[in-house]
Specification:
Blueprint lengths: L2 E9 L4 H15 L5 E9 L2 E11 L2 H7 L3 H11 L3 E10 L2
C-alpha cells in the first residue's frame, strides 16, 4: 500500500528564495531514495511564499527512512523549519 504525504509550507516574509533553493536540493536528493515513488515540489504562482510538497512512498517505512536521511535532517530540520511561518502535513494511503 503506497503512503502519501502532502505538505504545505509558508515561508516567513523575505525567505521565499531560500526555501525555494532548499526544496530544489531536498527534492533532488529525496528522489534518489529507494523507498520514494514520487517527490515533487511546487510553489504558488500567485504567492511565492506558499509551497506544496507531494511525497509518495512504497510504504510507511519509506517515509520513516526518508526522515532519517542526512539531507532531510539538514535541509528540513536545520535549514527550512526556522525559515517557515507554518508547516502543515497530511498523510494518505492508496485504496
Amino acid at each position: 500500500m503506497a503512503y502519501v504525504l502532502a505538505v504545505n509550507w509558508t515561508a516567513k516574509e523575505g525567505h521565499e528564495v531560500e526555501i525555494h533553493e532548499i526544496l530544489g536540493i531536498l527534492g533532488e536528493a529525496s528522489r534518489q531514495e529507494p523507498g520514494v515513488i514520487t517527490y515533487t515540489t511546487h510553489v504558488d504562482p500567485d504567492n511565492p511564499r506558499e509551497f506544496f510538497i507531494y511525497e509518495k512512498y512504497h510504504d510507511v517505512s519509506g517515509l520513516e527512512a526518508h526522515q532519517e536521511t542526512s539531507h532531510f535532517k539538514e535541509y528540513v530540520l536545520e535549514k527550512a523549519i526556522p525559515l517557515l511561518e507554518s508547516r502543515v502535513r497530511k498523510t494518505f494511503v492508496d485504496f
